[in-house]
Write a structure and sequence with these properties.
Structural class: mainly alpha
Low-confidence stretches: 1-29
Number of strands: 2
Largest sheet: 2 strands, antiparallel
Mean pLDDT: 84
Radius of gyration: 32 Å
CATH architecture of the largest domain: Up-down Bundle
Oligomer: single chain
Shape: globular
CATH topology of the largest domain: Four Helix Bundle (Hemerythrin (Met), subunit A)
Order of helices and strands: HHHHEEHH
Distance between the termini: 94 Å
């Protein structure tokens, strides 16, 4: 009986050893070879996404230029609720930019925006709330001039913004009261 227990203990020990060896072999077999590992690390589809870090020009094109145009189109149509909404969107876009790009060519972006637009924005806000087309057109022109003054200050005088002459958003209605 004791011999059988010894045999069982030896067999159990061998089985445990074989299980550990098999597990270890599987772990080694499942790990990629160094060349495969390097190839996996270089696969862009598997890479960890990087934080979004756009340049100032990209932010201007994505956030500011379309909103500038939408304010103009809403004001041209005398759709004052929409003009007010789009104006707030424009202001929010300008609030985001200095947080994303604090300095441009060594200049403080937030201070540049304030210097160029704080006063014209106040007049535009008043014109929209008053629903005054003449005052809106003058104020919007001053906002646009502020944009161009900032471009000149940052050595980009070739970037010239203007009041849109055509609707660049064919999928949005700017006329008031239409659904």
């Amino acid at each position: 009986m004791q011999i059988r227990l010894v045999h069982l203990a030896v067999l159990a020990g061998l089985a445990a050893f074989a299980g550990v060896a098999t597990f270890a072999a599987r772990g080694v077999a499942q790990q990629p070879a160094p060349a495969e590992q390097a190839q996996e690390e270089q696969n862009p589809a598997d890479a960890t996404p990087q934080p979004f870090n756009p340049q100032l020009a990209a932010l201007m094109i994505m956030l500011i230029q379309p909103r500038h145009a939408k304010v103009a189109m809403a004001g041209k149509s005398e759709n004052w609720p929409l003009a007010g909404y789009e104006f707030k969107q424009l202001q929010q876009g300008f609030a985001v930019i200095p947080r994303a790009v604090p300095r441009y060519k060594g200049l403080p972006v937030g201070e540049l925006i304030d210097a160029a637009l704080k006063q014209p924005f106040a007049v535009l806000d008043f014109a929209i709330k008053a629903g005054d087309t003449r005052q809106f057109n003058e104020a919007f022109g001053r906002v646009t001039q502020g944009c161009n003054a900032c471009h000149t200050t940052t050595d980009n005088p070739f970037i010239v913004i203007k009041t849109p002459t055509a609707d660049m958003f064919p999928n949005q209605e700017f006329e008031p009261g239409k659904r």
